[in-house]
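Pasting as-is:
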Amino acid sequence: MVDKPDWTFLSNHGHVAVCLARDPEGRLRDIADQVGITERRVAAIIAELEAAGIVSRKRVGRRNSYTVNREAKLRHPVESHRTVGDLLKAIGE
């Protein structure tokens, strides 16, 4: 078993966005397991990503389908000249 690192280069917001880009129909439970946070925190992060225009949600039957806005600019001044798509491309998504 691999120990969980003390820190990572991406925030939980970044990790959730990557998970949604990989699996647009991903369940909160599965995303929470992958990121290592609670389902409640995933839901809050998705709401924040939606409010920022980075993620949109569409209801499909009883499930949600998410679209990541790859044209959205990254938020921190250091990387604000780049897009979410640039980040996803850099990590192979």
